[in-house]
Design a protein that fits this description.
Largest sheet: 6 strands, antiparallel
Radius of gyration: 18 Å
Distance between the termini: 38 Å
Strand content: over 45%
Helix content: 10-25%
Order of helices and strands: HEEEEEE
Oligomer: single chain
Shape: elongated
Structural class: mainly beta
Number of helices: 1
């Protein structure tokens, strides 16, 4: 068992030396101007789409993405049960040490629970 683990680690280190592309560090962030229930949709470290349900006003997640992924997407679905006006949602993605790419959306005040997914996508 230990020998197979050591062989795997050696193979991983050799692949990095041979010049295979390394994984990219990605930061996902959602900021909401008020506390509420919301969902976020993003790609995890395995390239699988993931949805998390949260309560609050902030979401931050760091992961390493495989270099074969050519587009990063972050979505937020925010409920507004009190139909608050003038509220905002900021969605941002930061790749490695680059400047974060972000978009600010104004919250829908017409309906309480039938909002849309606020989306930001970045091509790599």
């Amino acid at each position: 068992m230990i020998n197979s683990f050591l062989k795997l680690m050696e193979k991983k280190q050799n692949s990095a030396i041979l010049g295979f592309p390394k994984k990219k560090s990605v930061y996902y962030e959602v900021n909401i101007s008020f506390k509420t229930f919301f969902q976020v949709w993003y790609y995890d470290e395995n390239g699988q789409s993931t949805i998390k349900e949260l309560f609050g006003d902030h979401f931050l997640y760091e992961t390493l993405l495989h270099p074969s992924i050519d587009k990063i997407v972050l979505k937020a679905y925010v409920t507004n049960p009190l139909k608050k006006g003038n509220e905002t949602i900021r969605v941002s993605i930061q790749i490695e040490e680059q400047t974060p790419i972000e978009e600010v959306f104004t919250m829908n005040t017409e309906v309480a629970f039938k909002n849309k997914w606020y989306q930001l996508s970045v091509a790599l």
